[in-house]
Design goal:
The structure holds 3 protein chains of 3 kinds. By secondary structure, chain A is mainly α. Chain A is built from 14 helices and no strands. In chain B, 50% of the residues are buried. The chains are: A mainly alpha, B mainly alpha, C alpha+beta. The interface between A and C is large, with 60 and 65 residues.
Chain lengths: 306, 292, 509
């Protein structure tokens, strides 16, 4: 197991290096001189030259990459061009709101999604199955910015139940977490349903049923437990996606998270922040995948041996 | 009685895959309904010039922001353009974005998956690492980058969304390819010297299709939604295009004042995406070997 | 700092419905984020507004952008506008207790104009040659060359005076630690929320009347309006014109609209065919119905431009009414110029929703006289590279460019020079249509070289007449500033250039 762990850990390094080159190339391929953007619409040439020097953009590209990589390895990410703050502070401040929103969204949507999926699976082909699936899918079929604005006008303005947004109290989590979780709930419900039906057809479930085990026990003990194993992968994947922060939900609900930061940074070509943020996403993603793989390997020794 | 008799007889004879699929699919009423709805939408989009009572870009400054009436079924927008006509014309654009982006992303992804799965070794390793990088890269940022570099417009929106779809298609195709590669008929074909390219195209590609079709139908809906998100951040179709997401995004400037401008394109998107998803679920049930 | 424990604490708390409105706190919602507080390092309206709560300059603007002395009492200038002697108000201290005097002004200005500090407003400081302090309350500023609008420049927030103690202590981090003589002091600033609290030592008696201000970034227009309606914010800016109606005639809110100093125009690249022909440029001006533009895009909140300058800008002179709408004449002029069937062209603009709408409108109008326009909204960075990546004017790909400008100094110079003179050609400044007329250039230069208000006005009058004749732009409109407050709040206002003043903020009853 330890060798497997080390092997998997080592294999993430080339991916991260590739991502770093990709990110650096991507950032510098974006059209638009960041010095000009940062200096603003009524800056003169001296102002722009000052900003360019301040940003280190007067160096050759490979030198900039070398500097950046060296600093990044030492966890130094420089200063934001946009706000002059250290990038680590900027990203850290935005990370917590996104993490909490992700956790809350994931919690409700997994619960609801798995419940709907099981209901569907148990009552396969019946009206409950169809109704749950239509309900789950409806949630993911609405453009989220539109849904968000409709919710605000109903629950904040008309009824006054929840604030329009902001990262303040538990009330402010309700609407953004709901909108963000809808997509996850739909995927979870579908996936659980398939997994559930698949496992139901397995011999050990049939055997249990034939042996006269009570239906409830068949569902909970034999079927669901096994059906949930592949759901782990999916959860990991969704967690990774959500941690990237949602540009749309964060914008609509004025949520101070990473998604909004990324859009703002891209539009002002805040190179250090964009680079740090995308590296953070990629690292998160790779690490989550690693954890999922390890969980799998723990469950299924066959994978380790390959 | 007689029906079950016919049925059991039929199940004994060998049916073509298509007939087999249809036998299982025709009882999925929800999916069937969704399919019919999509067909109707497609026809409406194709016949837009015949159906739409007004031009999609014809302004009427004397009739701006009018609510639904007999003259304008879905009301008019800020320029006095007929919202109903714009939705009909916009169907062309939104459906085109959906189909083309999925076709493009699917084709590239499946090619990569086929090659990776079939060839194996370091090529496979390299391709899959590239897919990992792409998957780890936040999709919407990739889309922003594509649109920022290539400029706004529907064609670039299609490329941007296609990029999203590549990694999953590649993984799906690779997984199936690796299984099929070991099957008796492929081994047999290989042993009698069938060229690898032919082997891939003739014997393995068809096997990867069912899962690809299912994923594609689900992906179609999310492509339309992604296009709407791009419009939301101002990087979508170029104005005055009546792409549904753009209508919704532009219309939100009048929320609380003229809600019908957003309501109708919102409903159009909702129904279409829902239909694609329900169709996809039905297809999955009918095509997936394991769920039989 | 918002802490790790937040959701737990929040769950435990038995929170009331809307967040309780602390007595005397005003929550203000804006569309952008505050980016910094060092006034000499800012170029966006919101950051400048935020820094105005903390910082003050020798001169200031009132809510209608009329210039008045603030930390200065009076000034004298020599005839050719090179030496300005400014007398300071006495007995003022910075909020950190440091006394405000001539030495503090010199320290602050010298720091802000030092190229080694790489501050973004260096160009505003560029005319200064040296700063002397004849006595404790007098500052003598000598310029490198005559610069007439210098006092207007001094009212720009970039010339706000920073506490010398803060400069010594924080140096390059002033953006996060600004200390000035203003009515408020920085309290906290996390992600998208900035809070300032009352400065107990503020020098104007009785002010400020509220305890604190909270500035929140709420980018989505609909959400911002909802915040006001739900009682979460007491002031919002901007109110998009399309949604203004939902706040109009409402007993709970004041919707305030007033003329801005924004000019909306389409610059035509006069170096390129067919826009090198003045008849074509006139034709396009005749082709656009500005009343309909105001109605459709700005929902009636604005005025037609009747000169290159908006009427609120110092130096404006009317050209006798807006350009008339006459599509028949437009067609005739196009035919005379050799385009009886019109032509095809591309219109660039940013990707903001109002710009997109205006561009679609222009496409419709120009289409009606046979000019087929392709609308291309550009992402900010792409726009910059297309316009400022150009090194030689002849190489520019620009054809039509939809722009908007507000002169942050409130003076004609900062519109005519960057947008309509040879000095303004990209990549230096913003003359995206590459218009230049020796007469206009001479006027702009002439007005720079005198501080005499009457002489400067005459130069600008002449320049505007010439520009109107040459029609390098499609002269469109000047939209209104639109903001909203709850009824019992007064004293927070937006100036015509889009910056917010908060000094007089007060709740009635």
């Amino acid at each position: 197991m330890l060798t497997y762990l080390l092997k998997r850990l080592a294999s993430t390094i080339p991916v991260l290096v590739a991502v770093s080159i990709f990110v650096f190339g991507f950032v510098h391929a974006l059209p638009g001189d960041p010095a000009r953007l940062v200096a603003g619409p009524d800056a003169g040439p001296q102002d722009i030259a000052a900003v360019r020097a301040e940003m280190g953009l007067d160096l050759p590209l490979w030198e900039q990459y070398g500097l950046w990589l060296n600093n990044a390895v030492h966890l130094r990410f420089g200063k934001s061009i946009r706000t002059q703050e250290p990038v680590s502070t900027v990203v850290a401040q935005r990370f917590m709101p996104t993490l909490w929103l992700t956790l809350v969204s994931l919690a409700w949507s997994m619960t609801a999604g798995i419940a709907l999926g099981v209901l569907s699976g148990v009552r396969r082909g019946k009206w409950e199955d169809q109704a749950s699936m239509v309900a789950a899918i409806s949630g993911v079929s609405m453009p989220s910015f539109w849904l968000g604005l409709l919710l605000i006008s109903l629950f904040s303005v008309r009824l006054g139940w929840f604030p329009t947004g902001g990262y303040d109290s538990w009330r402010s989590f309700v609407m953004p977490a709901f909108v963000l979780g809808l997509g996850v709930a739909a995927v979870m419900a579908r996936f659980t349903r398939s997994a559930f039906i698949e496992v139901s057809a397995e011999d050990y479930v049939r055997t249990a049923r034939m042996k006269g085990a009570p239906e409830r026990r068949v569902i909970w003990h034999h079927t669901l437990r096994n059906a949930l194993i592949p759901v782990i992968t999916l959860t990991g994947l969704q967690f990774g996606f959500l941690l990237g922060g949602s540009i749309v939900v964060e914008t609509v609900f004025a949520w101070p998270g990473l998604g909004r930061l990324l859009v703002d940074s891209v539009s002002l070509r805040d190179y250090p922040v964009i680079q740090a943020e995308i590296m953070l996403f990629s690292t998160e993603f790779v690490l989550i995948n690693l954890v999922v793989d390890l969980l799998y390997a723990a469950v299924n020794p066959e994978i380790r041996l390959r | 009685m007689s029906a079950s008799l016919v049925d059991s007889q039929a199940s004994e004879s060998i049916r073509s895959p298509l007939a087999e699929f249809w036998r299982r699919f025709r009882h999925k009423y929800v999916a069937l309904g969704a399919g019919c709805l999509l067909l109707a939408l497609l026809v409406a989009a194709l016949a837009a010039p015949l159906i739409a009572p007004y031009g999609p870009a014809t302004p009427d400054y004397d009739a701006v922001l009018e609510g639904p009436s007999w003259v304008h079924w879905c009301g008019t927008d800020a320029f006095g353009r007929d919202v109903f006509s714009r939705i009909i014309w916009g169907g062309r654009i939104s459906l085109t974005i959906g189909f083309l982006s999925v076709a493009l992303g699917g084709a590239v992804g499946m090619l990569i998956g086929l090659i990776g799965g079939f060839v194996g070794g370091w090529i496979d390793g390299l391709l899959m690492r590239v897919m990992d990088v792409l998957l780890a890269f936040p999709g919407i940022v990739a889309a922003i980058a594509v649109v920022a570099i290539l400029g706004p417009g529907i064609d670039n929106v299609i490329y941007a969304i296609a990029v999203f779809s590549v990694p999953v298609f590649a993984r799906l195709a690779r997984g199936t390819t690796m299984v099929l590669k070991q099957t008796v008929y492929v081994q047999a074909a290989r042993s009698i010297g069938v060229r690898p390219i032919l082997l891939m195209l003739r014997h393995i590609l068809p096997g990867t299709m069912p899962s690809a079709i299912v994923y594609a139908s689900l992906r179609l809906g999310s492509s339309i939604l992604t296009a709407a998100s791009l419009s939301f951040i101002g990087l979508g179709a170029r104005p005055p295009s009546p792409e549904w997401g753009a209508m919704l995004a532009d219309g939100r400037d009048y929320l609380g004042v003229a809600d019908h401008i957003t309501l109708f394109p919102g409903i159009a998107i909702f129904i279409t995406v829902l239909a694609f998803n329900l169709l996809g679920d039905g297809l999955r049930d009918a095509l997936d070997q394991k769920l039989r | 700092m918002l802490k790790w424990t937040l959701p737990l604490a929040a769950l435990l708390a038995t929170a009331g419905l809307a967040p309780a409105q602390a007595a005397g706190n005003v929550t203000m919602a804006f569309d952008n984020n505050v980016l910094g507080l060092n006034p000499a390092n800012l170029n966006d309206n919101l950051s400048m507004s935020a820094s105005r709560t903390i910082m003050q300059g020798l001169f200031g603007f009132d809510k209608d952008m009329k210039l008045h002395p603030l930390l200065a009492e009076s000034y004298e200038a020599n005839d050719n506008a090179t030496v300005f002697t400014i007398h300071l108000r006495k007995g003022i201290t910075f909020s950190d207790g440091t006394p405000f005097n001539a030495a503090a002004v010199k320290t602050s200005f010298d720091f802000m104009r030092d190229p080694a500090n790489h501050l973004k407003r260096l160009s505003l400081y560029a005319p200064i040659d040296k700063i002397e302090t004849p006595d404790d309350s007098t500052v003598k500023i000598t310029l490198k060359q005559p610069f007439g609008p210098f006092i207007a420049n001094l009212a720009h927030i970039a010339f706000a005076v920073m506490s010398p103690k803060a400069i010594a202590e924080y140096g390059k981090d002033l953006d996060r630690h600004a200390v000035g003589t203003g009515p408020f002091m920085l309290d906290s600033w996390q992600t998208d929320t900035l809070k300032v609290v009352k400065n107990p030592h503020y020098w104007q008696p009785g002010l400020p009347k509220v305890d604190s201000l909270t500035i929140k970034s709420v980018p989505e227009d609909g959400t911002r309006i909802s915040m006001l309606q739900a009682g979460e914010a007491q002031f919002i800016f901007p109110v998009p014109p399309g949604m203004a109606q939902s706040l109009e005639h409402n007993a709970k809110f004041d919707l305030i609209h007033k003329p801005s100093i924004y000019a909306r125009y389409v610059a035509m690249n006069v170096l390129k065919k067919p826009f090198d022909d003045v008849r074509v440029r006139e034709a396009l001006n005749y082709a656009v119905n500005k009343d309909a533009l105001l109605k459709v895009v700005f929902n009636g909140y604005g005025q037609k431009l009747d000169s290159a300058l908006p009427s609120g800008l110092a130096g404006y002179s009317s050209q006798g009414g807006a350009w008339p709408y006459d599509p028949a004449k437009a067609k005739k002029l196009l035919a005379e110029a050799g385009y009886p069937n019109g032509f095809s062209t591309v219109l660039w603009g940013n990707s903001a929703s109002l710009t997109r709408k205006a561009m679609v409108f222009l496409q419709q109008q120009l289409g009606a006289v046979g000019v087929k326009v392709e609308v291309e909204p550009l992402e900010a960075g792409v726009m910059i590279s297309r316009i400022y990546g150009v090194q030689k004017p002849e190489e520019a790909q620009t054809q039509l460019y939809y722009g908007g400008w507000s002169a942050s100094t409130g003076d004609a110079d900062w519109e005519l020079r960057p947008l309509l003179s040879k000095m303004g050609f990209p990549p230096t400044l913003y003359n995206t249509g590459y218009y230049s007329n020796p007469k206009v250039d001479a006027d702009v230069q002439g007005a720079l070289e005198t501080a005499d208000a009457a002489k400067r006005a005459a130069f600008y009058k002449d320049a505007q007449a010439q520009i109107w004749k040459d029609a390098p732009w499609i002269f469109l409109v000047s939209e209104n500033i639109l903001y909203a407050r709850v009824k019992n709040l007064s004293g927070i206002d937006v100036m015509p250039d889009g910056q917010t003043l908060t000094l007089d903020a007060a709740f009635t009853k």
